[in-house]
Amino acid sequence: MSEIQFNQQEKEQLVLKIQNYFNDELAQDIGQFDAEFLLDFFAKEVGGYFYNRGVFDAQAIVSDKLENVAEVINEALFEIEKPVK
Q1: pLDDT tens per residue across span 15-33
Q2: Tens of pLDDT along 38-77?
Q3: What residues contact residue 32 under an 8 Å CB cut-off, 6+ apart?
Q4: Which of 8, 28, 9 is CA-nearest to residue 18?
């Protein structure tokens, strides 16, 4: 798996969220550099778990949709069958 990377706008938003969390929940100020460092750490060390969960959830949705499509196709094929004696 390739490294998880964010574009500049995403990174700025995530850094701001980290800074706000530290300020609101821990009553600590954290600088931009430290917040970026923490973001990079989490992306590298735990990001794969979140990514894999997203892939798993996507697989479940696709599987469910394909199953529904297969049912519709089977029903359509059954409807066009010719009666035989």
Answers
A1: 999 999 999 999 999 999 9
A2: 999 999 999 999 999 999 999 999 999 999 999 999 999 9
A3: 15, 19
A4: 28
Under DSSP, the state recorded for 4 is P
Q: What is the DSSP letter of 80?
A: T
Phi and psi for 46 in degrees, rounded to 5? -125, -10
Report the C-alpha gap between 32 and 46 in whole angstroms.
20
Strands (E), 1-85: none
- Supply 64's token pair: 């469910």
Q: Is the pLDDT of residue 2 over 80?
A: no
| Residue recorded with tokens 């300020």 | 23
Amino acid at residue number 2:
S
Tally of CA atoms within 13 A in the half-sphere of 1 that contains its CB: 13
